[in-house]
Amino acid sequence: MWEQIHGLVLQASDRIVTGIANFLPGVLALIVIIAITVMLTVIVRMALRRFLRSVDFDGMVARWGFPEIAEWSPKHSPSLMAIRLVNWGIILIGILMGVNALDATLTSMLVVRLFEYIPHVVAAIIVLAVGTFAARFLARSVLISAVNMRIQSAKLISLGVKWMVMVLTAAMALEQLQIGGQIVTLSFAILFGGIVLALALALGLGSKEMVSRTWEKQDQSEDTKDEGLQHL
Amino acid sequence: MPETGILIQSGGQTQEIVTADILIAIPTYNNADTIGSLVRAARNGVLQFSTYKTVIMLADGGSEDSTLERAREALGGWENLIQVLYPLYPIHRLAVSSQAIPGRDSAFQTIFSTAERLGVKACCIIEPGIKSLTPDWMGSLVQPIVESGFDFVAPQYLRHRYEATLINGIIYPMVRALFGRQIRQPIGNDFGFSSAFVRHCLSENTWSRDIERYAVDLCTTLEAIHGGFKLCQALLGPRPQFRREPPLDLSTVLFETAGSLFGLVEQTAEHWQRVRGSEPVPSFGLRFDAEHENPTIDIKPMVEKFRLGFANLQEIWGMILPPATLLELKKLSRQADERFLFPDDLWTRIIYDFAVAYRLRTIGREHLMGALTPIYLAWVASFILSVREVRPRQVPGRIENLCKTYEAQKPYLISRWRWPDRFMP
Predict the structure, then answer these.
(1) What is the mean pLDDT of chain B?
(2) For site-directed labelling of B350, which of A113, A190, B211, B323 has its Cα 20 to 30 A away?
(3) pLDDT number for residue B1
(4) Is B247 on the interface with A (CB under 8 A)?
(5) What gap in Å lies between CA B89 and CA B153, rounded to an integer?
(6) ipTM summary value
(7) Are A139 and A156 in contact (CB under 8 A)?
(8) Does the distance separating the beta carbons of A144 and B313 come in below 8 Å?
(9) Structure pTM?
(10) What is the pLDDT of residue A193?
C-alpha cells in the first residue's frame, strides 16, 4: 500500500515537474517578449515624439478643428495622447504574443474576439470624432448668432447645445462599443426627455413672465438697432 | 459663349439686332414696381447719344410678375430693345443675398456676352431697386468710355455720412491700400465698361465661382485694376434705394461683401504685395450738394453688442487676433458710450487679422464674419460719434485718414500673411 502511495506521489511530482518544465520556457519567452516590447515602446516613443514635434502635430490637430481632444485631458497635449495610444497598442500586441508563448489555444481565442470587436471600436471612434466636431461647430454657430442677436445668455445656450450633442455622441459611442446595452439607450432617453420636459415646464410655467419680458426687450432692440443705417 | 436666351425686339418681332454702339443693360427679376421709371430714364438718357446706335437691354432672370410688360409699356414702342433671359440656377434662387436681383453674376455674364455679340463700343449696367434716377446717369457712365477712352467706369454715389459704413470702413480703404487705386465705390450697382474690358472679362474668368456669385461687382473692379485698364469714376449723385424688408442679417452682408474681398485678397496675394501707395482715379459727372437730412442714430445698441461680444467671443477672437489686440479691445469695451473711440490703427490691424484668418481658415468663414460683426458695429458707433458734429465737407477727410492708416499698416498685413504664427503665442 505504501508502495502504491509512493508511486502515486512520484507520478504526481513527475507530472508537476514536467508541467513546470514545460511551462518555464513559455514564462521565460513571455518575460523576454515583454522586455523587448518595453524596449521597443521606449524607442518608438522617442522616435514618435520627435516626429510629431517636427510636423507640429498639436498645431495640426487644432487646425483640423479638434482642440476638444486636448480639452478632454487638459494636462496632456494631443501628441502625448497619440504617443500613449501607440505605446499601449505595442504593449497589447506584446502581451498577446507573450500569452501565445504560454498557451496558443487561449491566445487564438483572444485574438479572434479582439478582431471581432475592432469594427465596433472603429465605429465608436468615428462617432466620437464626428460628434465632437458637430458639437463644436453647433456650439460656435449658436454662440455667434446669439451674440449678434444680443441674447445675454449666449454662452450658456451655446454650452447647453454643446453638451446635448456630446451626451448624444457618448450614448451612440457606448452603444457601438456594446457597453451597457439597453441601459445606455434608456438612460439617454430618460435624461434627454427629462431635460426637454424641465425646459418646457420652466418656460411654460415658472419663467413665463421673464421669457415674455425678454422677448419684448429683444423685439424692441431689434426694431431700433439699425434705425436709419445703411451699411452698403 | 454661354447661351444668352432669345432676343426679342419691342412689339414682339423676333428679328435680332445685329450691331449696336452702346448697350444700356438693366438686369431684372420681379421689379415690376420700379422698372417703369428706370426704363423711362434710360430711354431719355439714350437721347444724349444721338450719333450712336444705342440699344436698351432687359436681362431678366424669369420674372413672375409684370416686370417685362411694364418695361415695354414704359418704352412706348422704342425699337432698339433687346430682351434676354439670363440663366437662374437653383443656387441663385435659394441664396439669401443682399443683392438687388438673384443671379447677378449670371446676369453680368449674359450682358457681357450680348455686348460682345453686338460689337458695342460701350456697355453700362443700371440695376433696379432704385426709387428714381436721372437720364444723366447713362451719360456719366458711358461718355468717359466713348469720348475719353476709359475702359471701366465705377459709380460714385452721394451718400449720407452715416451710410455705406461698410464701404467706408472696410471695402474702399482696403481695396485702395492693397490694390493702389482710389476707387471710392468698388462695389456698386451701376457700372460702365468698354468693349476691350468686356472681351477681357469673357476670356479671363479666373475668379472663384462662390466669390463671383456674391460680389461680381467687386470682381469686375479688381479685374479692371489687375488687368491695367484705364479707370475712372462717375459722380452719379444720390441713389435712393428701397429698403429691403425684412432687413438682411448684418453677418450675412459682411460675409458677402467683406468676406468676398478677403477671398479676392487671397487669390491676388502675389499682386497686392508688390503694390505701394495709391493713385487717385479721375472723376466725371455732375457735382452734387452735400447731404441735407440729418438722421439720428442711437449708437448704444451697437456698443452694447460689442460689449456682449467681448464677454462671450473672447475665445474665438483669441484664435484670430494677437493678444495685444485683444487687450486693446478690452480697454475699448470699458469706454463710456459718449466717449467711445475706436482707434484707426487698431481697426485696420483687426481687419487685416481677419483677412489672414480667412485665408488660413482658422475657423469656418461664416463663423469668422459673424465674429467680426460686433467689432464692426463698435467701429460704426465710433465713426458715427467722430463725424456727428463735423461739417459735411470734413467727413471725407475722416475717411481719408482711415485710408492712410490702412496704407500705413499694410506692412503689418504682409508680415502676418507671410509669417502668420509670428504674432500669435
Answers:
(1) 86
(2) B211
(3) 35
(4) yes
(5) 29
(6) 0.83
(7) no
(8) yes
(9) 0.79
(10) 82
